[in-house]
Amino acid sequence: MRSLRLILSNPRYFGPAWVFASLNILFGTWAIYIPSVKEDLGINKATLGIAIFFLSLGVFTIFPVASKIINKIGVGRATSVGIVLCCIAALFPLIAPGFIGLAIALFVFGATNGFTDISMNTLVTEIEKEDKQKFMSASHGFFSLGGVLAGLGSFLIPVLNNRGLHMLLAVLLVLLVNFIFYKKYHNVVAAPIEKEAFRFKNFKPLMLLGVVSFVVMGSEGAIVDWSGLFLKEVSLAPEAIWGAGFLGFQVFMTLGRFLGDSISSRIGSIKIVALGSLLSVVGYLLVLTTDMYLAIAGFALTGLGFSVIVPELFRIGGNVKGVESSQGVAFIAGTGYSGFLVGPVILGFIAEQFSLSLSFITLMICSVAVLGATFLLKRKKSV
Fold this sequence. Notes:
The chain is mainly alpha-helical. 81% of the residues lie in helices and 0% in strands. The longest helix has 33 residues, at 99-131.
């Protein structure tokens, strides 16, 4: 909890951490309306998967140029610009009149999200280097906290009865707090490094981490996108708690990330990834019972399992020798969001052709694969 106290006691750290929260407040507000958007537009699961594919495609498209823009204008300035663009883009997916409009809106929303994601992770990496403080995991905890706030916002659905207005309120909250704190990080720039010609060996240490990022971030995105539909269509939950799986996932992910920096220091990176993947497997088993309450508990346990894996990957990616921090972060983010890119489409077609339960069985198998990868990594390290 030391890193959490650091963030809460110093505006220099709270400012970047709130950007993490902001991103998930906006994304989570979109996510809780996915079932109603699907119904109102009259599209099936496979078509919804294609629409979500465009969101991931927007994220993935920005990666090749993001690090160049960040290095050119400065990582602090890039982060503040990115969050403003996200706020603008977030307003359109929930008011799209049809599938094409939804796909375009999600592409733009994805691109602004991807740019801000790389900017904010690079920003925290640079501040960690400069101040000799660790708060990456806790910053990702604030990302999860943003999801908690978005999940709690699901209780406003029957009150507002207007998803466009709901998103507008979320945007105003995000902009207000960022306006207060953005000056604390606006002028941060990446520390200069010894430039080297591109060599594959520089990225070689990141390859296995990239595979893990692909699976974990893809699975995380799938839970965000499909948990509401699972509770609605498989567990037959009432409308008032369709967002409960997403909320439980985010609450326990937040808790795990606030504890993550100290746990990682105590047991090491490989063990924390193994522990996280094991917890996620157990969580998926609970989800697959299809019992409403066990499924919600399963989503929560999966969130706890995934909580500390991705922050660890970003920290490592931003500190590879001979690679600019923005490039390392972009590599981890790129492989991770590749999971977002292909995951929703594959899972959408599996759900449509077979069942939503089979989609979650697939996700569980992916978590088992991550657990297996940690044993391989441990064996390599010991050789």
